[in-house]
Amino acid sequence: MKFHKLAMLTATMAFGAVPTMALAATPSTPGPHASLPAKAKAYGKYCQGQSKTHVAGTPGTPFSKCVTDMAELANGSVKNSRTACKDESKKHVAGQHGTPFSLCVSGAAKLLKNNAPVHNGVKGP
Fold it and tell me: pLDDT tens digit string along 48-58?
């Protein structure tokens, strides 16, 4: 009888530990100082409209700047989308809809909407 109780207790404890171990193994969202491929994989969908071609005289591409801005926003080091995208160009690029700034702000708003905390079953700030 004691062996049966011990076996049940051990099995219950083992199954209770499985979900916590699974949660610890999930990777966190990459921060603003992570490598560009890691950030592009995580935040690239919010920057899909951005150009991936280099602009003469500026470091990086509009896409890479946008991805870094999304990482800062998701990490919490920046609080709103306009502040996150302040370093983006506000000049129109030929053949593109919108400016890099407007596309970044739009993507940042979608990121904030998708990552909004849930309170009482309602998404919102």
Answer: 888 888 878 88
CA dihedral 47, 43, 60, 104 (to 10 degrees): 40
57 Rama class: left (phi>0) / alpha (psi -120 to 50) / beta: left
Whether the pLDDT of residue 86 is over 70: the answer is yes
Please check whether residue 78 lies inside any domain of the structure.
yes
- How many Cβ atoms from other residues are within 10 Å of residue 50's Cβ? 22
Tally the domains of the chain. Answer: 1
* pLDDT band (50, 70, 90) for residue 93: confident
Nearest to 104 by CA among 72, 74, 63, 54: 63
Distance, in Å, from the CA atom of 75 to the CA atom of 18, rounded to the nearest integer, reads: 28
